[in-house]
Amino acid sequence: MQTQIKDELESVMYSYTIDSHRLEQENKLLKETVKQLQNEIKRFKEPALMVCDIVEILEDRAIIKTPNGNRFYVNIALEVKGLLPGDSVLVEQKNLTVVEKIRNNRRFNVEKFVIIEKPRLQWGQVGGLAKQINEIREVIELPLLKPELFEKVGIDPPKGILLHGPPGTGKTLLAKAVASSTRSTFIEIVASELVQKFIGEGAKLVKEIFQLAKEKSPSIIFIDELDALASRRIEVGTSGEREVQRTFMQLLAEMDGFKSLSNVKVIGCTNRKDILDPAIIRPGRLDRLIEVPTPDKEGREEIFNIHTGRMTLNNETNVGKILDKMEEFSGAEIKAVCTEAGYFAIREDRVEVCTNDFLKAVEKVKQQEEEAKYLEMFG
Fold first, then answer.
1. Range of the domain at 36
2. What pTM value is reported for the model?
3. Does 53 share its domain with 35?
4. Pairing mode of beta strands 288-291, 160-164
5. For residues 68-78, average pLDDT
6. pLDDT of 120 higher than 90
7. Sheet containing 61-65: which strands, arranged edge to edge?
8. Cα 287 from Cα 106, distance rounded (Å)
9. How many domains does the chain divide into?
């Protein structure tokens, strides 16, 4: 009997010991969880650190540039070593002391904001611009393909060109065709988007664009709507205007910083040459100006033949009459006419496109242009 009681007592004591050990483990785990949560709460209460760039190191202090472009002369924490101009750092917001160097993973983030491609557009696909094609081949294609010719003669070719003229006349096509003929990387930037989207970042993005172009050379930087970035400088008022000026000055600096015979060329494009700052088109920058006008009748016919090359036209199609109706049409409008004429045939379940289809398409494109102009004028 005593033995049985003893065994029962030992069993109860053992179970209590096990339970006590388990409770101690749970208590320890709960304490660790509480400590982690307290640290997390403390971390959440800490003020946010600001990301800045080092401009210059002066002994134990630094000149930094904040995201809005302002510069400050600040202290560097003792544990922060090996800083160089251009490094990205974290600074505390009260007195902007540099507290930590961060790894700069933003290089070539600009690739998200530009169009990068290897065009396959051939010169034969560009119609009505024979004179412009010859000029652009001399200025862009020849230096990229045969730089030794210029070295032997002892002259420097232009670093870039400006294509100017009405919308839709083929400026982008010319740039893509020369990129294709030289097997260059085509980097397309829309200047208006650059200055609108990236306040505080424009100058840095321009620098990265040129670094990217050098990495992917031979390359052509195509800047569309250049007038949005490079219009005549006026009294700088708002922070947005100051940012445009900083971005423009960085563009000029980058263009001055590479050689004429480098594997990077710049092609600017604008519909408003009259408002450009003279600094961008002076010798040594975009010093070859190529006008791309609305095509004449011969040019319209060439463009029309390119866009109808794969279409099945009715044998009685009156091309002369169609071309007369498209007087003052740009290349883009002629292409739109061909597309709309094809749709008129499809709607009537035909594969042949006739004169009437093209005439109706001309009227439709004219109407669309008038509506677009009205909306632009009156919103």
1. 1-46
2. 0.69
3. no
4. parallel
5. 87
6. no
7. 71-75, 61-65, 49-58, 88-92, 98-102
8. 33
9. 4
